């Protein structure tokens, strides 16, 4: 995800997505024979969440999760408890449609109170420069008779709670423990100006005074903001699968601590279900291909960012393509009624018309009027595999400037660059209300760990550079990033090597595996991701299940936007239903189906989502939450 940018959003949109009683921290117990795994360095934080607090919503409940940001008593010094509550809220609001028409809590899903404990630590992949966070949530009502561990990875580049709306909402009310990883990303932003980063509890500290989740090489001359996904030097995407498997191992070890009388917890006596969405979906598919120890009992991946050998297309390939061509292509008349493709009064966005003009000036499209230029840009994208349905949904990513944000960050990660030498002249800096670089606002900085998406711009951090003073200032950076992919020069080989390292491996044929993807996904189109993956598995003798859900697109949270949700359905209920079916197979002996009923939902329309609109199989519920 790739998802979650928020530059230029109106305030009411920021309340939809970030593009979130007591809780006592105690030292980790030192039970004999129950030491933490060797990949964990430093402390394991143990917190309890009960009266006025819980694991699933931090005591906010569904209404509180959907409401205004959870406040800090002292905005410059939020407590760990306040940061955690807001991080959980932000993670929910960045993924699920909790709006009044979205149907969460009525048509599908729920947010019950789930008291329990959390175990959290920094874990290290061999050779990594920076850790990834791992977290286990253990409900008090953990079902020891049906030992279940759900493991997930955050969507996009979000923080540790980024998978809670999928994995936590489904697993915790069922009595499963849930293990999370931020897969080497997250919002542990480092401010070079004051040399501060984020510690395990989410609060900030200066370099050298505490163990930080990310700190770049020290510099006395540079300011700006360093972001772990882009600047760790680890190319974390290449290790997503290892992050997930370590989170599963951490979960088993912490269950030993939580229930020493039932130890040991192993993959032989505890079923481990892996699930994730977007980048988290890609992460669990990577884990399935690396699972030589057969830790995983089943996998459900939603809209995965996945690349298979010699098929499909890499995210960086089609995202840099979209960054250049999509603004012009969306001006084609066929998108006149597409939400977010036109101004509120129906006018063409001037910046997009200027993109058509600039492409014409560079000889990339012909014609003397925008309509002809847009038609050619549209045809180019069609020839590269984009469907009109995916392009229409991509109007959201284009409007919110996600292509530039994603590709700038990912280029830096693939090439293992730091905050001062990002490709194409990009860099991150604290910005003021006018967008000019300056000093980080202390209140925004204190809340970064809870509020930020993991990929700037947003939350007072700007993406700067890669521009000129023309009427289409972002085009030079877009063309430069595209050239990194298309060049054969040795100086750009690091990027292509970095992308190649993210290719998924084949899972064992016996692993129950289900991919759920929206037919209208405009950020990770099925033609480039899930469909090549499914075809590849089947060509190798595998039997994966696949749901291509009509009218579902990438961002459930965007369904709260006026006019946008009318044309779509959410994807989360189909993920919950697939997990229900996997549960029935693992715990109730139901046969794993050779094929599954294909849902035939209808667009939500202008009213509140109705259960019948989803067309889920009649014998399946849409999950307990």
UniProtKB/TrEMBL annotation:
<dbReference type="InterPro" id="IPR029058">
    <property type="entry name" value="AB_hydrolase_fold"/>
</dbReference>
<dbReference type="Pfam" id="PF10605">
    <property type="entry name" value="3HBOH"/>
</dbReference>
<keyword id="KW-0378">Hydrolase</keyword>
<protein>
    <submittedName>
        <fullName>3-hydroxybutyrate oligomer hydrolase family protein</fullName>
    </submittedName>
</protein>
<dbReference type="InterPro" id="IPR016582">
    <property type="entry name" value="OHBut_olig_hydro_put"/>
</dbReference>
<dbReference type="GO" id="GO:0016787">
    <property type="term" value="F:hydrolase activity"/>
</dbReference>
């Amino acid at each position: 995800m790739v998802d979650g940018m928020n530059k230029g959003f109106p305030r009411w949109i920021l309340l939809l997505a970030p593009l979130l009683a007591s809780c006592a921290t105690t030292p980790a117990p030192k039970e004999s024979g129950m030491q933490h795994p060797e990949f964990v360095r430093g402390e394991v934080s143990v917190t309890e969440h009960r009266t006025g607090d819980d694991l699933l919503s931090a005591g906010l409940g569904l209404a509180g999760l959907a409401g205004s940001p959870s406040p800090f008593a002292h905005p410059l010094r939020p407590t760990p408890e306040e940061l955690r509550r807001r991080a959980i809220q932000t993670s929910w609001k960045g993924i699920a449609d909790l709006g009044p028409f979205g149907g969460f809590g009525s048509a599908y899903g729920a947010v019950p109170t789930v008291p329990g404990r959390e175990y959290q630590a920094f874990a290290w992949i061999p050779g990594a420069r920076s850790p990834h966070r791992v977290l286990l949530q253990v409900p008090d009502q953990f079902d020891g008779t049906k030992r279940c561990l759900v493991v997930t990875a955050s969507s996009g580049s979000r923080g540790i709670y980024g998978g809670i709306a999928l994995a936590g909402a489904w697993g915790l009310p069922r009595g499963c423990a849930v293990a999370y990883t931020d897969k080497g990303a997250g919002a542990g932003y480092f401010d070079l100006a004051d040399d501060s980063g984020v510690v395990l509890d989410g609060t900030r500290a200066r370099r050298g005074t505490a163990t930080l989740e990310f700190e770049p090489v020290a510099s006395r001359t540079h300011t700006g903001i360093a972001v772990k996904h882009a600047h760790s030097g680890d190319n974390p995407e290449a290790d997503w699968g290892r992050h997930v498997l370590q989170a599963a191992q951490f979960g088993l070890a912490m269950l030993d601590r939580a229930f020493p009388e039932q130890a040991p917890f192993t993959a032989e006596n505890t079923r481990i279900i892996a699930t994730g969405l977007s980048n988290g979906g890609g992460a669990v598919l990577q884990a399935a291909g690396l699972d030589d120890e057969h830790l995983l009992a089943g996998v459900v991946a939603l809209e995965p960012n996945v690349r298979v050998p010699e098929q499909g297309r890499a995210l960086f390939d089609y995202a840099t393509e979209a960054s250049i061509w999509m603004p012009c292509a969306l001006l084609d008349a066929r998108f006149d009624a597409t939400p977010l493709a036109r101004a509120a009064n129906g006018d063409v966005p001037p910046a997009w018309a200027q993109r058509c003009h600039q492409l014409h000036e560079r000889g990339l499209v012909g014609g003397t009027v925008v309509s002809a230029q847009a038609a050619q840009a549209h045809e180019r994208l069609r020839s590269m595999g984009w469907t009109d349905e995916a392009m229409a949904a991509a109007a959201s990513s284009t409007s919110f400037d996600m292509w530039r944000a994603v590709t700038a960050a990912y280029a830096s990660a693939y090439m293992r660059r730091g905050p001062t030498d990002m490709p194409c002249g990009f860099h991150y800096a604290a910005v003021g209300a006018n967008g000019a670089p300056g000093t980080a606002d202390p209140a925004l900085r204190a809340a970064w760990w809870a509020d930020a998406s993991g990929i700037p711009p947003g939350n007072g951090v700007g993406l700067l550079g890669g521009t000129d003073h023309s009427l289409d200032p972002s085009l030079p950076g877009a063309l430069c990033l595209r050239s990194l992919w298309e060049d054969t020069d040795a100086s750009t080989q690091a990027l292509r090597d970095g992308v190649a390292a993210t290719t998924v491996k084949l899972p064992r044929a016996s692993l129950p595996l289900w991919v759920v993807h929206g037919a209208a996904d405009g950020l990770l189109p099925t033609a480039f991701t899930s469909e090549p993956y499914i075809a590849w598995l089947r060509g190798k003798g595998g039997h994966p299940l696949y749901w291509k859900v009509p009218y579902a697109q990438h961002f459930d949270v965007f369904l709260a936007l006026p006019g946008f949700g009318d044309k779509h359905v959410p994807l989360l209920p189909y993920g919950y239903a697939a997990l229900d079916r996997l549960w029935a197979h693992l715990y109730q002996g139901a046969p794993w189906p050779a094929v599954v009923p294909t849902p035939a939902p209808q667009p939500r329309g202008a009213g509140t989502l109705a259960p019948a609109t989803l067309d889920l199989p009649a014998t399946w519920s849409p999950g307990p939450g």
